[in-house]
Design goal:
By secondary structure, the chain is of the alpha+beta class. Helices cover about 15% and strands about 15% of the residues. It has a domain of about 45 residues. The chain has 1 helix and 3 strands, in the order βββα. It has a 3-stranded antiparallel beta sheet, with helices on one face.
């Protein structure tokens, strides 16, 4: 009776979210990498200070890989 049931779907509450390397955020409860749209309460409802901190950390991530140039046409 003392055993807890595993959570089937984590809510990714903001209290459980921490910034990790690469400009990503991780839920400390379920260990998943999370995006703005996956957290609770909604990102839009968390106020400008929280949003600014989240966005600033995301900008510390690696730059996107440059697109490969199309191969040169044979002349």
């Amino acid at each position: 009776m003392g055993r807890s049931m595993p959570m089937l779907a984590c809510t990714h509450h903001v209290a459980w979210i921490k910034p990790v390397a690469g400009g990503k955020h991780q839920c400390t409860y379920c260990k998943a990498a999370v995006a703005k749209k996956e957290i609770y309460p909604k990102f839009e409802d968390l106020g400008p200070t929280f949003q600014a901190q989240w966005d600033a950390h995301e900008k510390t991530g690696p730059a996107p890989a440059p697109k490969a140039d199309a191969p040169a046409a044979a002349h």
